[in-house]
Amino acid sequence: MTLTSRIIRRVSAFLFVILTLWSVLFYLVMMDEITDEVDDAIDLYAENVITRYLAGKELPDTDNGTNNSYHINRVTEEYARTHPHFSYTDETLYIADKHEAEPARVMKTIFRNSIGEWMELTVITPTIEKKDLMESIAYWILGLYLAVVITIIVVNAWVIRRSMRPLYRLLGWLDRYNINEQADPIDNPTTVTEFQTLNDAIQRFSQRNHELFEQQKRFIGDASHELQTPIAICLNRLEMLCDTDLGEEQMGEVIKTLQTLEHMSELNRSLLLLSKIDNHQYLDTVPVDMAALVHQTQNEYRRMAAERKVKVTIEETCHLVWTMNPTLAKILVHNLYRNALVHNLAEGDGELHIYIGTREMAFSNTGAPVALDEEHIFDRFYKEGGREGSSGLGLAIVKAICDTSDLSVGYDFVERKHRFVVGFFKRS
């Protein structure tokens, strides 16, 4: 939801509540004023009738059918004591001349005549139909509300869009911003102090980010190369040491040290690769034939598959081509292929089936008889069962490559086989 839409929705809801409360208050105040006026008129009429009655003068017509009407009845002393001497009520009376019921205001007052008898005067006067008035007010309020809302939507949309132009230009600049490149100056002239401050802050922030990013890249690259050199020297010296006359126990320790250094070297290369992927340093893309890449990988790992006695089959149903960085594509296939071989059956007779379809590429292999942890299998440094010699970064690299190349990757355990599926669906 855009900011303009959110503002208009909230203002409209607020106006609806305010207008509703105002209409209820307006109705109550208006009805109170009307009732007061009607009661004042009834009081004058009743006073005139009582005065003429007590003076023995001729009284007004008792019922004219449409205007004020009245009647006087004799009541008991007990009735006079138990009833209020002045009361006002709203009633509905049937008017014979009109053949319909009409709302009326009724006033009753109790007084004594000249000989001390208690009398009750009832005065009836027509009044307005409250239900009709309420409906009229509701219709007018609804019309007023719609008119106000439409006006506010149009005016607010115009005012907000014009006022927020600097923000939209800034958002466009941020959308084009690439931390790998030196940021262009923000061309966003505005007289609004807050937007000027925001422009300056983002310009400084982007510059600092770019500088820190460049420093990080240099540090990671330098550290990786600096580490690779002593590791390679140590490996060479240990290999030379293996050619000398060493005892069996000493030779075993040297071999273990060699394996540890090789693992360290692989871990260092993997971390450097992950860092480059995260920093979007593989930006060049070309159409990559995934099937050809799988066959090429099969040839490279043919010896390893034979040594581990893993039967590899490839099922290709279509020509799958995806635009991505060729280096990342090769690493993606290599990691999935190697993972399927390394984690296959240890006693041999393992299987690896590779399926290449229209929108997916799946690697299914035999291995552990239980499913892996789907929630953590792609986490960095996660090792299922604490497998020795594994860096825990192979599948993490696969996940990072898929994320940066608009691909999806998932895992399931089907028919006692571990299946990793790369989906080619995200590209729009």
What would your notes on this structure say?
Helix 7 (290-300) packs across helix 9 and helix 9 runs antiparallel to helix 10. 54% of the residues lie in helices and 19% in strands. A hairpin with a 4-residue loop joins strand 2 (86-95) and strand 3 (100-112). The model has no long low-confidence stretch (mean pLDDT 81). By secondary structure, it is of the alpha+beta class. The chain folds into three domains: 3-150, no CATH class; 194-277, Orthogonal Bundle (Helix Hairpins), CATH 1.10.287; 283-423, Heat Shock Protein 90. It contains ten helices and eleven strands. The strands form three sheets. It has a five-stranded mixed beta sheet with strand order 6-8-9-11-10. It has a four-stranded antiparallel beta sheet with strand order 1-4-3-2, covered by helices on one side. A two-stranded antiparallel sheet has the order 5-7. The chain has helices at residues 3-55, 77-82, 130-163, 165-176, 193-242, 248-278, 290-300, 302-307, 326-342, 394-404, and strands at residues 69-74, 86-95, 100-112, 118-126, 286-289, 310-316, 321-324, 350-356, 360-365, 408-414, 417-423.
Short description:
This protein is α+β, with helices and mostly antiparallel strands.
Topology:
Blueprint: H1 3-55, E1 69-74, H2 77-82, E2 86-95, E3 100-112, E4 118-126, H3 130-163, H4 165-176, H5 193-242, H6 248-278, E5 286-289, H7 290-300, H8 302-307, E6 310-316, E7 321-324, H9 326-342, E8 350-356, E9 360-365, H10 394-404, E10 408-414, E11 417-423
Parallel strand pairs: 6-8
Antiparallel strand pairs: 1-4, 2-3, 3-4, 5-7, 8-9, 9-11, 10-11
